[in-house]
Design brief:
There is one protein chain. By secondary structure, the protein is α+β, with helices and mostly antiparallel strands. It folds into 3 domains: about 60 residues; about 100 residues, no CATH class; about 110 residues, no CATH class. It is about 55% helix and about 15% strand. Strands 1, 2, 3, 4, 7, 8, 9 and 10 form an 8-stranded antiparallel beta sheet that branches. Helix 2 packs across helix 3, helix 4 crosses helix 5 and helix 7 packs parallel to helix 9. This is DUF6384 family protein. It comes from Ectorhizobium quercum.
Length: about 325
């Protein structure tokens, strides 16, 4: 055995170490005694006797060696926690100890960042899709719809006024596309479709002659109480016998109303001819005021009319 090995004291047993720690703890709880006694040199024996009496009162027998070890440990501040001074090692150690809490916080922040990034990407994708859809609509969809609608109208237009209206709508559509105005272009397409609907429509303007209903009325204008305006009450009837509702401008108030019966203003001679026809036998022999053929915008009148209409009487 070497000299260094012989000089090394044996390590204290675990129970002795724990007992020495208890002695230090007892001294700390008896702080007033410990401080007073330790402050005076040569009073270790007195302090040791006090400690022995404390342990004996608890039924414990503690050797002098353990008591001496405890007093020495207290003087050397052994078994006392000294906090690590501030610095990088302490900061890193603190982060490591609290890694679970920081990990949750970091995870939450990471999740928020991912969600925000995903939402931003989704918004960018949506904006890109909307921009591409708008480009395709103006470059491909609307031009194709305009051409198709115009061809359909052209195939039905049989009168100069119908063809003139087709040209107006086509011009509006082209201008809208040149301005990249999708809304105006859609309106032009809708106008072309409505025009075709008007052109394919056929009906007769029949003078109402049912029992108990008026076939004609006259009105005295407010601006000229010495005059009379004469109207024949009509309805639009399809070849299948269906009565149509039509948008009619009431000349008395300027409002457009959709009605199934209205009054067409006619000269007094026309009005009187219809009145005599009905008075003769109670039946109108000629009840058709006008016929609207396919391909035309307006009816063709078989009687003389003055223009203008009313929707109430």
């Amino acid at each position: 055995m070497s000299e260094s090995t012989a000089a090394t004291p044996p390590a204290p047993a675990l129970d002795e170490l724990m007992l020495a720690m208890d002695v230090v703890d007892t001294l700390r709880h008896q702080e007033s005694v410990a401080v007073r006694e330790l402050a005076q040199d040569g009073r270790d024996e007195t302090l040791k006797e006090r400690l022995r009496r404390i342990y004996e009162s608890q039924g414990l027998e503690v050797s002098d060696r353990i008591l001496d070890e405890g007093i020495k440990a207290l003087k050397e501040s052994r078994f006392t926690y000294e906090p690590t001074p501030p610095g990088l090692p302490r900061t890193l150690a603190g982060l490591w100890v609290r890694r679970a809490s920081y990990g949750k916080a970091f995870g939450a922040l990471a999740l928020v960042a991912v969600l925000w990034g995903g939402w931003s990407v989704w918004q960018d994708i949506r904006a890109g899709q909307a921009e591409e859809a708008a480009r395709i609509e103006l470059a491909e969809t609307l031009p194709a719809q305009i051409v198709a609608a115009a061809k359909a109208v052209q195939a039905e237009a049989r009168t100069p006024d119908a063809r003139e209206r087709l040209t107006e709508l086509q011009t509006d559509a082209v201008t809208a596309l040149e301005r990249s105005d999708a809304g105006a272009a859609r309106a032009a397409v809708a106008g072309l479709e409505r025009l075709r609907g008007q052109l394919v429509q056929t009906y007769e303007l029949r003078i109402v002659s049912r029992q108990g209903e008026q076939s004609g009325v006259y009105r005295i204008p407010d601006v000229n109480t010495g005059a009379r305006n004469y109207y024949l009450i009509v309805e639009a009837v399809t070849p299948e016998g269906r009565v149509l509702s039509m948008p009619i401008i009431n000349e008395e108030n300027g409002r457009t109303e959709t009605v199934s019966r209205w009054g067409v203003r006619v000269p007094e001679q026309t009005y009187e001819a219809v009145r005599r026809d009905k008075v003769d036998d109670g039946i109108l022999q000629n009840a058709v005021l006008a016929t609207k053929p396919r391909g035309a915008l307006v009816p063709v009148y078989s009687m003389t009319v003055s223009g203008g209409a009313i929707t109430q009487w």
